Amino acid sequence: MFSPTFVILFIFTLSAAARLQGGQGQMQSRGATTIVGQIVSADSTRDVGFCLGAESNEDGAAVAIVLCGDSTPTFPNGNNTWVVPAAPLTGSITTFGNKCLDVTNGNAVNGQTLQIWTCTEGDTNQMFLATNNAQIQWVGTNFCVDLTNGDTTPGNLIQIWDCAVPDNSNPNQVWIV
Asked: What are the residue boundaries of the Ricin B lectin domain, all occurrences included (predicted)?
């Protein structure tokens, strides 16, 4: 597991690298407001990276942890590349071009799983804040994107949970974009 200091340093390094041409495992700037790349769990090890992955491009598809290098063993029709608002901006987190990370049914309860859904302008279920402290917070709530039980087994569903205080003190809620 990475220490908070390493995560912050890594995020700074990725921010500087955001101007690189994008590709699998690389970051790409889309203006000053978004970053294209993978969302990596701080629970990754030095040898194996774990990322958010979408099961497919269908509405209601699951969002789970997958191997960063190759998500196809877990989700053959999936994707693990996302467009994320640059910290500390608020907006939708998208994949497959027009699918957004979405809180299922807008249920604001610990353990509610995430899904992807066709992006809808102003849909509060699809609005997130990438914080300066490496959390991804559901806007207007105190819930953060959370790696369920800290389990990095590919296919483990991603949920929302009360945001850890102080920020980034729970590695299940630390995401490297």
From this structure: 91-176
Q: Which CATH architecture has domain 4-170+172-176?
A: Trefoil (2.80)
Beta bridge partners of 100: 94, 117
The letter for the amino acid at 18 is A
Residues 148-176: tens digit of each pLDDT = 999 999 999 999 999 998 766 788 999 88
Q: Where are the domains of the chain?
A: 4-170+172-176
pLDDT: which is higher, 79 or 36: 79
How far, CA to CA in Å, does 81 sit from each of 3, 8, 163, 164, 167? 24, 21, 24, 25, 25
Residue 173 DSSP SS3: helix
